[in-house]
């Protein structure tokens, strides 16, 4: 099952704009190594889950992985071949907006080589450019 909020005050949101740099979640807090976004973008819950699975597979579930972002923004879509108007479409999937510098994943309990390999494969699943940083 993909990450999504249990309950929200409003079902549908406006798109909004992406800010350029992250000032809050740009430092490693929990683990020894982190996967940091080098550019701003949106990451869907499916992409986040695919990256998490790839990281867990590479470290053979030996270490601990933290997901530092949560997809809480709904993206709506209208069905195909539907005419204009008649209101906003229903929620299709959930995304998280990521600023440049945000830590997406953190990892501890593995060696440097294993974590670098895991984050390279996990970062390949994400639509933003990433870099690996050490605590």
Query: What gap, in angstroms, lies between the N and C termini?
Result: 31 Å
- In round numbers, the mean pLDDT is 95
Overall strand count: 7
Distinct helical segment count? 2
Please give the order of strands in the largest beta sheet.
3-6-1-7
Q: Looking at this structure, what is the CATH superfamily of the domain at 41-76 and 92-134?
A: Ribosomal protein L16/L10
CATH names the topology of the domain at 41-76 and 92-134 as Aldehyde Oxidoreductase, domain 3
Using the coordinates above, name the CATH class of the domain at 41-76 and 92-134: Alpha Beta
Rg result: 16 Å
Give a quick account of the main beta sheet: strands, pairing sense, barrel closure: 4 strands, antiparallel
Share of residues in helices: 10-25%
Order of helices and strands: EEHEEEEHE
> Which CATH-level-2 architecture of the domain at 41-76 and 92-134?
Alpha-Beta Complex
Shape designation:
elongated
- Overall SS class: alpha+beta
Uncertain residue segments = none
Strand content: 25-35%
Would you summarize the structure shown here?
The chain is α+β, with helices and mostly antiparallel strands and 135 residues long. It is built from two helices and seven strands.
Keywords:
single chain; 135 residues; alpha+beta; Aldehyde Oxidoreductase, domain 3; 4-stranded antiparallel sheet; 3-stranded antiparallel sheet; 20% helix
């Amino acid at each position: 099952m993909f990450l999504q909020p249990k309950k929200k005050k409003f079902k549908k949101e406006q798109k909004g704009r992406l800010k350029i740099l992250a000032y809050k979640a740009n430092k490693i807090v929990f683990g020894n190594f982190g996967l940091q976004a080098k550019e701003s973008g949106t990451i869907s819950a499916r992409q986040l889950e695919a990256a998490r699975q790839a990281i867990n597979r590479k470290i053979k579930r030996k270490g601990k992985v933290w997901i530092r972002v949560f997809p809480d923004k709904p993206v709506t879509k209208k069905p195909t071949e539907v005419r204009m108007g008649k209101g906003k479409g229903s929620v299709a999937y959930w995304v998280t907006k990521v600023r440049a510098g945000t830590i997406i994943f953190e990892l501890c309990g593995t060696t440097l080589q294993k974590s670098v390999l895991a984050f390279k494969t996990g970062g390949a699943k994400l639509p933003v450019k990433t870099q690996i940083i050490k605590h």
